[in-house]
Amino acid sequence: MTIQLSTNGNIELVGSCTVDDAEFLLQALLTNPGITVDWSACESAHGAVIQVLLVAKTRPFGKPVDTFLRDKVGPWLGVAM
Predict the structure, then answer these.
(1) 16: which strand partners?
(2) Which H or E element spans position 50?
């Protein structure tokens, strides 16, 4: 699983997040209102994962490994790089 709950209370996106990770991310966001998402270790993310972040109005923090996520997707999510 590339989406995990960290010990410090964040959701971490790690490695290549696949379509299968979108459901876990959605459930984690729904059961933990106000939780933050760290995508600094994210190498890629399926469109479904990005859609969950968009719909949840979640602004991830950190600088993702992938330049497309950082330069193109980040602004959609309201992330200033």
Answers:
(1) 44
(2) helix 47-56
